[in-house]
Write a structure and sequence with these properties.
globular, 4 helices, mainly alpha
């Protein structure tokens, strides 16, 4: 018996597209946070540009998209999308410390 390494649905995964009701100012603000964070930590590159990472993270937060679905459609792993999600949540929390202080 041979081990099958290709996905069950074939080589071309399904892509789900939806309209994300979100202002361009919000998208740009999150992308700028990511750019500043990458510069601060000295990261040389990411698989995708900050704007695309921001879009993926905001789609996951706004529409509760499964991380594996977002990952598959963007050619990254689900663990990468999860790491990006946690990074952006931390960056947003740092901007609003009172909101997360556990009043």
């Amino acid at each position: 018996m041979r081990k099958k390494t290709s996905p069950a649905e074939g080589p071309d995964g399904l892509v789900y597209q939806c309209r994300l009701s979100l202002s361009s100012a919000t998208l740009e603000m999150v992308a700028d946070l990511i750019r500043a964070h990458l510069k601060k930590i000295g990261s040389r590159w990411r698989k995708l540009p900050p704007g695309k990472i921001a879009l993926i993270v905001l789609a996951a937060l706004r529409h509760d998209q499964r991380l594996s679905d977002m990952a598959g459609g963007n050619d990254v792993s689900a663990s990468t999308v999860r790491r990006w999600l946690l990074e952006v949540i931390a960056l947003l929390a740092a901007r609003a410390p009172r909101a997360w202080s556990g009043r």
